[in-house]
């Protein structure tokens, strides 16, 4: 498949506080970021991904060549209910993406972070790298709560570089 001039990669940080970020396949320009759509479960205490809204956000965004979702997993420190809820949300966002784009891949945190020389999971460093790559959008990564947006954008960036055969720029 030959990418078109209006082709994008969507990076997804699938957590409840995660985000979706669209990066142009050829120019690596960040064109859009959306917070992860969520809804409250009955009882009003727990959130999950709002799959219909996620589908709408993804399908009305730029034309996609590939979707890259961070390959996260439950932590041994999570309780059973939290682990189930986490997995449920991951499945919901993955399903919403697959309805829109046939080319959905999972990217391990270690893989995309090491491509950018980001080690140790320091979220502040992730935000700083996103600000360096897209200084015109530095305000989107300025607060600690913007780590999901930074991760989604960086996942999309690394995936776009690899998809188009270009080196990841540090």
Structure description:
The strands form two sheets. The protein has a five-stranded mixed β-sheet. Strands 4-5 form a two-stranded antiparallel sheet. The chain has helices at residues 51-59, 80-100, 109-115, 123-133, 147-163, and strands at 8-13, 19-24, 30-35, 38-40, 47-49, 64-70, 104-107. It contains five helices and seven strands; from the N terminus they run E-E-E-E-E-H-E-H-E-H-H-H. The protein is of the alpha/beta class. It is globular and about 45 Å long. Helix 1 (51-59) runs parallel beside helix 2 (80-100) and helix 4 (123-133) crosses helix 5. 38% of the residues lie in helices and 21% in strands.
Secondary-structure content class: alpha/beta
Task: Spell the H/E element sequence.
Answer: EEEEEHEHEHHH
User: Unreliable segments (pLDDT under 50, ≥5 consecutive)?
Assistant: none
Radius of gyration: 15 Å
The percentage helix is: 25-40%
The tally of helices reads 5
Strand content bin = 15-25%
Number of strands: 7
> Please, what is the average pLDDT?
89
Q: What would the principal axes of the Cα set say about the shape?
A: globular
Question: Mind summarizing the main beta sheet?
Answer: 5 strands, mixed
Across the major sheet, the strand order is 3-2-1-6-7
Structure summary:
This protein has 170 residues and is an alpha/beta fold.
Task: Give me the secondary-structure topology.
Elements: E1 8-13, E2 19-24, E3 30-35, E4 38-40, E5 47-49, H1 51-59, E6 64-70, H2 80-100, E7 104-107, H3 109-115, H4 123-133, H5 147-163
Parallel strand pairs: 1-6, 6-7
Antiparallel strand pairs: 1-2, 2-3, 4-5
Helix pairs in contact: 1-2, 4-5
């Amino acid at each position: 498949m030959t990418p078109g001039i209006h082709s994008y990669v969507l990076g997804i940080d699938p957590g409840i506080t995660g985000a979706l970020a669209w990066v142009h396949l050829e120019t690596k320009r960040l064109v859009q970021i959306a917070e992860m759509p969520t809804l409250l479960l009955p009882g009003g205490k727990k959130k999950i991904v709002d799959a219909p809204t996620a589908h709408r956000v993804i399908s009305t965004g730029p034309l996609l060549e590939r979707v890259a979702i961070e390959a996260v997993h439950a932590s041994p420190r999570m309780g059973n209910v939290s682990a189930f809820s986490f997995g449920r949300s991951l499945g919901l966002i993955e399903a919403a993406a697959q309805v829109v784009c046939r080319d959905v891949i999972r990217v391990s945190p270690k893989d995309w972070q090491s491509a950018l020389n980001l080690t140790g999971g320091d979220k502040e460093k992730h935000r700083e790298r996103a600000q360096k790559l897209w200084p015109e959008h530095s305000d989107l990564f300025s607060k600690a709560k913007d780590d999901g947006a930074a991760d989604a954008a960086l996942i999309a960036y690394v995936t776009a570089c690899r998809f188009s055969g270009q080196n990841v720029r540090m």
